Structure formats: structure tokens, C-alpha cells
Amino acid sequence: MNTLFNKTFIGQSILNTITNKRYQSRTKYFAITNLVIAAILTGCGGSSSDSSSADSGTPDNSLPINTCEASSGLTLVTTSSDLSFNVEQTYTAGQSATILASVVNTDSAGLTYQWQQTSGPALSLVSENSPVLSFIIPESGEYSFSVNVSGNQTDLTESVSITANASINQLNINSDHQVVEGNGVSLRVARINDLIVDEIEWCYFSNQAVELDLTNPERPLFTAPNVNSDSVIGLKATGQFAGETLSDEVFVLVTNESTISSPYFDQPVARTYSYKDSSKYAANASNCVYSNQLNQTCNIADLPLVGQVANSENVQSVMDRVVVSHDWMGENFETFLTQADPNSDFIKLLQSVTAVVISYDVRPSFYWVATGAIYLDPEYLWFTPEQRDTINEAPDYRSDFGNDLQFIMPWRYVKNNDYAYSRIDRAVRQTRSLADITPNLASLLYHELAHANDFFPRSIHNTLTGPTLIDDFYRRTDDNALVSDQLKNIDPLTSSEMYGLAGVSFQGETANSTQKAYLPNDVTSFFLTDHANDFYAYSSTREDAAMLFEESFMSHRYQIQRDVAVTDPTELIVDWGQRGRIASPDLLDRAAFVIDQIMPEEDGKTLLNNLPEPINMTAGEDWYDNIGISPSSQSLSKVSSLNTTDNTTERRPVQIGREHRDMPIPQR
């Protein structure tokens, strides 16, 4: 055995902080070099003060940290083949742990990893397809693993064993990662008995210099440096708890990748792969929808919409198009489609996408017509804390939008006078059930898939001529044939004031003096003279259609209603508010048209007429006190096991707009 950090994990220093990165994170996710047109035409981009909203970029206030005075590092374990392991020098029950697999003189790019546990107390493995096996040790004892590494004329299988000691009092950092160079990384120091560790300090002990954003020392952020070969970054956290000085180490494998050549994905994206490797689209799905080497959009012949293939209206046909960074993401998505879609709404709506991408660095979710795929933030899908540990949690800087305005328009989904969805702070390690994730995931899918079906509804699939979806998109927009185009022609939103304010709140435009002077009662008057169901409808005609469809089906399928209000930004005193606005007679024709075009199996007007009548909030009371406005003869029922407090008084962070991203349209 040789200590790892005396060997060859050497790379370049950390990337310089990007100038004006905060602005860039607002306006660009995957910038399209020389292909961006002025108008942002598709996708979603909102803001929220809820911690669930996030952005893949890192903040612009990262600073260098010191070299550790002492560290244990990793130890190299060789085998009879070219496959070797790097293991921690000590493993302890109750702690995060890692084992790294590598092939001698070979980077991991192009290789496939498949780990299995072969002995010991059962573990929850969530990175079994990564060169970095990360797990939490439940108890002391012996653990053994095997890994197969294949690809690039390589096919090796070896085993490794570790011994875990009894639990001791120390810090725990969740968790070890593999990340591509230039991608964002987040780590988190676990709380001890739900209590915060004090005076947390960080240092590094690898050959990589590291800059961390320590705005929240419990959750440091950094950008993985450029490297010449796969390289390990070792970090150590030290803190004070109950009079003791405690510490833990964490390891991040930064992988060397091919030079970015894509004008579509011109910022580093995570390694992804087809969830179903037996799918005939296994190669094209990932290469066509989430790759730094995508140089031109793929032809329909190479990756058609799901619904363009015969007999595709089923779960397996959809799962053949799922691309993931971790297997658990595909597993949980398949569970949702199989067990929580009794009316096959999502199977029908998914006919209008080419693929579904679920990756740890997709934050927030979006649909992109350039690829025809939807991109899902896995925050909506995790069941276990170990799964959540794999998700990057860099914050969303769009929450600053609209700070100069004297109003906000919050929204929430409610059922039985209670929040319809659970919320777990990142510091709390708790499991979720399928019922827990369904409300948020369903609303997300209804919204994003409304975009896909706005552009390419099932009724026109056999008329698409290509050669790419972008070609068909432009033919349809030239004819004003999109569902949202037709909605605008039939019954457009007309408030110039609301359109202007939406530009400030959702696109980051600068508020003018007139907009800064608007009070909540002014905004109420603007909003109520129009026929929108939500403020976010004014961010674009595409969002107008998607918001109508989303709210309609959340109420129809789940009896979950949407609250929307106009309040001041600090005390949240309601000037006007309403529950179930989608059922207002003023919105009937608009919403029914969208439903009929996107989901023709339903009659739009019949669906809407069967929804509960809108209920007005009590003006002058605050947003939270207005949650109990629906008549009920029963005590409030909790939506899930996670709701352990009386949510009528719970002051959750408010949500504004939609927690999704605008994506630009490539030029012709």
C-alpha cells in the first residue's frame, strides 16, 4: 500500500472566478454561441425564496482556503490486474465513506463502472455507476464490494474489502463525489443530533488548490478545477461541538473530459448515460440531448419524439428515453410513472419529448426545443437522504429579481386547507415516500410537458418533416400554429403593466421609477382586468399556456388548488388573493382551449366546470393566515407523514413564479 497523495493526483489550480458571474447565471445556462436570438421563447424561469430552487452556477465570492496541517488521505490497494482501488485509511460506523476505482494510467472517461456489495450489513448504494463508490456505514464490521469496469477495450472485475470500526464522536461530511472539470460542487456538514456544529473551518490536503464559497460553512460550494488527468481533491472540515473539536475528510474526484466543442452545451455538464442500456436509443439519447460534444441538433430520424414511434404510449417506451447521472433517478422516475399516473396523463404528455434528462447538475428544470427533451431537477425525485446527497445544491441567484418592487405575487398549492406538498430542510436527514413527492413532481411535469405539447402536440406528430425539430418549430411558428400562438390570437393577455413587471421579476430587467412606485393595490387592478391565472403567465405567451394547463390538471386530477395573491414584499399582507382562480368564468375559454389542444381526451369546458369555484382571500390578513379559507367540516388532514406541524401557521418561504429556466431558441 502507498499513500495516495504521494502519488500522481496532480492537476491545475482552481479556475479563476468568472467576472460578473452573478449576471451570467441569470441570463445563461448553456449559452448558444452565435446562435442566440434576442427573444427568450421557451422553457421556464422563475424565482423563489424557497431553498428548493437552485442554479448550477457557483457564487462569485469564493476565496482560497488553507492547506491542512495534517490529514489521513487515501491509500492505494493494487490487484492482480490493472484495476486498483483507493480506500480511506479508517472507516467508522455512522460515517460517510468512499472507495475509488481506477485503471492504471487510464482516465475514467469512456469507461463504465458497475459496483456491487458482496458481503456485510446492507448498504444504500447510490453511486454504483461511478468510479467513486460513496455510502454511509450503518454499523461496524467487514464489508466487501466488487466492481466491473468496461469500455475502451477494457473489461476488468476485481473485489475489495474494508473494515469499519465502532462509531466515535466526529463530524460527518455528506458526501464524496465524482464531478467533471469545471462543474459545480456542493458539500454539506451533517448536524449532530439536529444541532449545528459551531466554528466550522475548511482546509484542503490534495495537490489541488481550492477556492470555496463559505457563505454557509455547513454547505461549501466550489467549481471543480480544470485537470490534465483524473485528480482527487481532498478537503477537511473542523468544528466545535459540545466542547470538543471534531473533524472529517471528504474526497472529490475531478475527471478529465474532452474539450468542449458544443455551441449548445458550452458549459460543463455532468456525465450521463441511458438508464436503459438495452434501448435502441441508448447511444443517441445522451449524445443528442446532454453532451458537451453536441455540435448540431440531431435529426428526427436519429432521435424522434416518443410518440412518433408505433405503440409507444407505455412506461417502457418512455424509460427507453431516460438519461441519468445516477441510477436512482431513473428508478424513482419509473416508480412515479408506474404507480402515481393512474390516468396515464404523463405517459400521454411524454409522447411529445425526445428524451428525459435527470442529472445532479440540472437545476432548475426546463424544456428545450433545441433538443426536444425535458430536463428534471432530481430534487423533485429523491426518496432517501443518501440520494439527496448526490444532488448539487448551489443557490439560485434569480431570487434577487424584483427586489426594487413594492409588491410580490406569491403562490402555493393547497389541499384541505393545508400545504399540498412536503418540505424538508437540507440539514434534516429524512426519507420521503411516493405520496410525498407526487404533488411537486406532478405540477412540474404538467408544466414542462405543457411546453413540449404546445410546440409539438400529438395531433401533429405525423406531419413533422424535419430534418430536425427546430426546422419544424420554425415552420409552425411562421404559421402561428403553436398552441400558445393560437391562444394569443383567440384571447390575449393585454396588461402592459403586468408584462413590464414580469420582465423585472422573472427576466432580471431593471425596474423603472414608475414600476418602483406601484403599490399592491395598483398591481391588483392591473391583474384583475385581465384573464391570467398567475403573474408568471406574463413572462411569455408560452408560460401563459403552460400555467393554465398546469393549474387545471392539478385541481382536476389531485383536487389540489393553487393560491395566488398580491401582497407587500415584507409583511405579506394580502391586498387581493384567490384560491382556484383557474375555475373563474373569465378564464374558462382560454383554459379550455389549451386543454383541448394538449389533452384532447378531456373536454376542457366540462373539466373546468367541474372544478371547485374560486374562493377569495381575506384582504388585510397576511398570506399565511389565509391558508384556511376553504370550507371544511373536518379537521385539517395532513398531506403526508412529513407534515408534523400545523401548517395553517407554518410560515414557509414564499414561492414566486416558476422554479424553471428559460432556454434560448437557435437561429435558423
Explain what this protein looks like in three dimensions.
The protein contains 15 helices and 34 strands. It is α+β, with helices and mostly antiparallel strands and 668 residues long. The chain folds into three domains: 61-255, Immunoglobulin-like (Sandwich), CATH 2.60.40; 273-394, no CATH class; 405-642, no CATH class. The protein is globular. It starts with a strand and ends in a 5-residue tail after the last strand.
Topology:
Layout: E1 2-3, H1 21-27, E2 42-43, E3 47-48, E4 63-64, E5 66-67, E6 74-77, E7 83-88, E8 91-92, E9 96-103, E10 112-119, E11 132-136, E12 141-151, E13 154-165, E14 173-174, E15 177-180, E16 184-186, E17 188-189, E18 198-204, E19 211-212, E20 221-223, E21 231-241, E22 244-255, E23 273-274, H2 282-289, H3 315-319, E24 322-324, H4 327-339, H5 345-349, E25 355-358, E26 366-368, E27 373-376, H6 385-389, E28 411-415, E29 418-419, H7 434-455, H8 469-478, H9 483-490, H10 496-507, H11 513-517, H12 520-528, H13 541-558, E30 561-567, E31 574-579, H14 588-598, H15 604-609, E32 615-616, E33 655-656, E34 662-663
Parallel strand pairs: 5-18, 8-13, 15-22, 24-25, 25-27
Antiparallel strand pairs: 1-6, 2-34, 3-33, 4-19, 6-7, 7-9, 9-11, 10-12, 12-13, 14-17, 16-20, 18-21, 21-22, 23-24, 26-27, 28-29, 28-30, 30-31, 31-32
Helix pairs in contact: 7-13, 9-13, 9-14, 13-14
